[in-house]
Design a protein that fits this description.
Elements: E1 2-7, E2 58-59, E3 66-67, E4 75-79, H1 80-85, H2 91-95, E5 101-105, E6 111-115, E7 133-137, E8 140-141, E9 143-144, E10 147-148, E11 156-163, H3 167-170, E12 177-183, E13 192-202, E14 207-220, E15 223-234, E16 239-240, E17 244-246, E18 259-261, E19 273-285, E20 291-304, E21 308-309, E22 317-318, E23 325-341, E24 344-362, H4 364-374, E25 384-385, E26 390-391, E27 402-419, E28 426-446, E29 462-484, E30 489-509, E31 539-559, E32 562-573, E33 589-602, E34 607-619, E35 622-626, E36 632-636, E37 640-654, E38 657-670, E39 705-717, E40 720-731, H5 740-746, E41 752-763, E42 766-773, E43 781-785, H6 790-793, E44 808-811, E45 816-824
Parallel strand pairs: 1-31, 7-12, 16-22
Antiparallel strand pairs: 2-3, 4-11, 5-6, 7-8, 9-10, 11-12, 13-14, 13-45, 14-15, 15-19, 17-18, 19-20, 20-23, 21-44, 23-24, 24-27, 25-26, 27-28, 28-29, 29-30, 30-31, 31-32, 32-33, 33-34, 34-37, 35-36, 37-38, 38-39, 39-40, 40-41, 41-42, 42-45, 43-44
Length: 825
């Protein structure tokens, strides 16, 4: 064990447009994103149409109910009607409208989220660093080590995006920012119900559909239940094209067949996704001061195929040989108790999350490229002699690998906090937090027909087995104090005292082929017991840390409609144990933020313009790479600095024309060399003759500019309301990797601009919408990767059919045309 102590410098949002007509958008130029304000809730009467104004947006970002324009944080909000108007149904849909957010994705449920340029890129897999961005469902954190839950967005009150360190109130998983998904709560005041039916078609692909509905049922004047359910089919658009592959070491001369094909797996549109889920919530007002809200929510997301393309095969195509599936199942039980003790608000939030992810993955590239470069296939056979380290004549088998993974995640969290009255000159929020995460890891790398000698004991055909248990525990005490120095000047100070305890134990590696090794069965002590079915547990490591971070803010209300603020804040992410347990632990990293921002409204509350400029210093940041045997290795990569600016605008041009826009600009680069190795204590080395990334290297993943612009226009037709809408999203070019050599292999991610348009009509309680997403069928590049180390799978000039190596690209969904009918009672 190593120990370190460090201190581093229910009610619906009133802004929802539930009664605002299906509205409409205009075409736009590119711009930016943070849709900070919803438009007017209802169209004014004929004589009042010149009085268009922006509605108040209510948020709970600081763990108390506040007006968005009075919260001194860079925050973007997508309200209920905006989520509907923008046809948001999942993570990919809403993230593109948040300018401060960037991400890498390998498919549904496998996203790595970054905010404000705090991104190192690299390989983020099931045993990587803890996330630097926290995702919350209501009061409960729902980010696992694999990534956040891909929650279907329906009957959602709002999505809040809090940019910059939120560590004092939200903890270690909010080093760079926080995303909050706020559901609609049961409402005892009246019955409500609704449903939506959608049919869509993906260009170059198949047909999809969505069916969803909700029911709000009062049980008494103090209790209600809310039931929500959904079923969604996402059509495939990537083709698994027929092809063959020849292994140099497995040819006729050596007793093999040499060539395989994917005749049994080739098909069109093979990356389909089916999502089914439900949410049941109960709210009981025990009296005028106390209420309880238990909720249970669950979802199953099953996908076929992969979501990356191989440009050597085709624009939306690849050639894979083995099953590729994902079955992502999760449920969460939560309980929120809210009450008052005197004039103080007390809140207790509990949650239990269980997530199981079963995956199958083609890993054929790994075998092919290592066989091509190092004769890997000459050692995979049905009859292997460990004494001579050779295969018997005629016993070679197809060396192709495929992965079967079974990952189980459990997360339990408790938070208890108290808040003083918001109208007091001196006010505070304070609380305690506990969280326990567990990750049961099982990864089998299989070769069909592999000899028993080469197979891990008890795991037939398994050339490599990872069987580990990871635990991440957090405890914290936190608080923020605010004092009104004058009526217009407020100072806020916050701190969080934390203790983290992270451990990893278990098995990884090969069978014992007769050599001395620090991992695999060769490392198992004599007589060691089995570990969860694996031959043994040959390592058990733990790292504990404690420390504190802080925040200070000074806010000046120039007048009731204009405010400026300055903030110093810190965020942190705990260190941990490498999956390759023989490597040293990686250290915690810290982020320090210096920010100046403003919240303003103009033109009699018809125009809001918010923004911030900031500098962030990122110390000893954690960097993940694919190391030997394709295992993730996490090292600390010295220092980086991010300078940036964020802007959002909402404009009620007339009673029926609404414009929203937002943009983010970042300059993120190293301020010290990344040499690629650490000293014996895990500290990054900065002085080296040939750094893998020198000072001044741009950080990967995050573009220098991201933004959007949306316009919506409504008008009266035949006793109802019609709308036109357009939305443009622009993402600048990005670097694929921090390291220059790997960046050269993978190439840059090009800038792209997508345009979404829609139109519709509402009358009485029903409405119909028609939309076209990605109107010009843009191939926006979201991620690039190889199946093994870039220097191997990306090797140029080795294989004629892959002159530039075998690099995959995840792209945006092609043009999608849909029609939707919905009704609310």
């Amino acid at each position: 064990m190593s120990t370190r102590s460090r201190r581093k410098p229910g009610r619906r949002d009133p802004s929802t447009l539930a009664r605002f007509p299906l509205t409409a958008a205009i075409y736009l130029a590119f711009g930016a994103t943070a849709l900070a304000q919803d438009a007017p809730a209802t169209p004014p009467a004929e004589g009042e149409r010149s009085a268009a104004t922006l509605d108040t947006v209510t948020v709970t970002a600081q763990k108390r109910v506040e007006n968005l324009q009075e919260v001194p944080i860079s925050i973007q909000v997508l309200g209920t009607e905006q989520l509907k108007n923008l046809n948001v149904t999942d993570f990919d849909d809403y993230v593109k409208y948040l300018p401060s957010v960037s991400y890498q994705s390998a498919g549904p449920g496998f996203a790595q989220i970054y905010m404000r340029g705090v991104a190192s890129g690299g390989d983020g897999n099931h045993s990587g660093s803890l996330p630097s961005v926290g995702v919350y469902l209501d009061e409960q954190p729902v980010t696992t080590i694999q990534g956040p839950l891909d929650i279907h967005i329906y009957d959602i009150d709002r999505v809040e995006s809090l940019a910059g360190p939120q560590g004092t109130l939200y903890g270690a998983s909010s080093q760079a920012g926080t995303l909050r998904i706020i559901t609609n709560k049961p409402d005892p005041t009246g019955f409500a119900a609704g449903y939506g039916l959608e049919l869509n078609s993906v260009s170059h692909g198949g047909i999809g559909h969505v069916a969803e509905g909700f029911l709000n049922l009062p049980m008494s004047d103090r209790a209600a239940i809310r039931l929500v359910a959904w079923n969604k089919h996402d059509a495939g658009y990537i083709d698994n094209v027929y092809g063959t592959r020849t292994f140099p070491s497995w040819d006729a001369d050596s007793g093999g067949n040499g060539t395989i094909d994917n005749a049994g797996r080739a098909r069109k549109d093979y990356n389909e996704v089916d999502t089914t889920g439900a949410r049941l919530a109960l709210k009981v007002d025990l009296d005028d001061n106390w209420s309880i809200t238990p909720t249970i929510m669950g979802q199953q997301q099953k996908s076929e195929g992969g979501f990356a393309v191989d440009p050597q095969v085709g624009e939306l195509a690849l050639t894979h040989f083995y099953p590729e599936t994902s079955d992502d199942r999760w449920w969460q039980a939560a309980l929120t108790v809210e009450g008052r003790i005197g004039n103080f608000d007390l809140t207790y939030a509990f949650a239990r999350l269980d997530r199981d992810v079963d995956v199958e993955q083609d890993y054929n590239d790994y075998a092919f490229w290592y066989d091509t470069l190092a004769a890997y296939g000459a050692y995979t056979c049905s009859d292997f002699d460990p004494d001579t380290f050779t295969c018997a004549p005629g016993s070679l088998v197809n060396p192709s690998q495929y992965i079967q993974g079974v990952d189980g995640y459990k997360k339990t969290s408790h938070e208890l906090r108290i808040a003083s009255p918001t109208e007091n000159r001196f006010r505070f929020v304070a609380g305690v937090f506990m969280q326990d995460q567990e990750h049961d890891i099982q990864q089998r790398y299989k070769i069909d027909g592999l000899s028993p000698v080469q197979s891990v004991t008890g795991w037939p055909d398994t050339i490599w087995l990872t069987k580990q248990l990871r635990q991440d525990k957090d405890k914290a005490v936190f608080g923020e104090l605010s004092f009104d120095i004058t009526e217009d000047l407020t100072a806020t100070a916050g701190a969080r005292w934390f203790e983290v305890d992270n451990s990893l134990k278990g098995f990884f590696g090969f069978a014992d082929w007769g050599w001395v090794s620090s991992y695999g069965e060769a490392a198992c002590p004599d007589g060691a017991p089995t570990f969860n079915g694996a031959p043994c547990s040959f390592f058990d490591k733990r790292v504990k840390e404690n420390g504190h971070i802080g925040r200070f803010n000074l806010t000046w209300r120039i007048d009731p409609s204009k405010m400026i603020y300055g903030t110093w804040s810190e965020g942190f992410r705990p260190g941990g144990i490498n999956r390759r347990g023989t490597l040293p632990p990686y250290l915690s990293d810290y982020l320090t933020n210096y920010e100046f921002g403003w919240k303003t409204t103009w033109l009699d509350n018809r125009l809001s313009f918010n923004g911030s400029v900031f500098r962030q210093d990122w110390e000893d940041f954690q960097f993940s790479i694919l190391g030997a045997n394709g295992l993730t290795e996490i090292k600390n990569a010295n220092q980086a600095r991010i300078n940036g600016a964020e802007f959002s605008l909402a404009f009620a041009a007339t009673y029926n024309l609404q414009l929203t826009a937002g943009a983010a600009f970042y300059d993120a680069e190293l301020t010290e060399n990344y040499c690629g190795f650490t000293d014996d204590d895990g500290n990054p080395v900065t002085e080296c003759a040939d750094p893998e990334a020198p000072t001044g290297t741009q950080l990967p993943v995050t573009p220098k500019m991201k933004g959007n612009l949306t316009a919506r226009y409504t008008f009266d037709v035949a006793g109802g309301e019609a709308f036109l809408q357009g939305a443009v999203v622009h993402v600048g070019d990005r670097k694929s990797d921090l390291r220059l050599a790997e960046r050269e292999i993978l190439g840059d991610l090009d800038a792209y601009t997508t345009v979404d348009v829609s139109a519709g009509y509402r009358r009485n309680d029903w409405k119909v919408d028609v939309y076209v997403n990605n109107l010009f069928d843009e191939r926006g590049e979201l991620n690039r990767f190889t199946q093994c180390a870039e220097s191997v799978c990306g090797a140029a000039g080795v294989v004629p059919e892959y002159p530039n190596g075998q690099v995959y690209t995840v792209v945006t969904q092609p043009r999608t045309i849909g029609v939707r009918f919905s009704q609310e009672f």
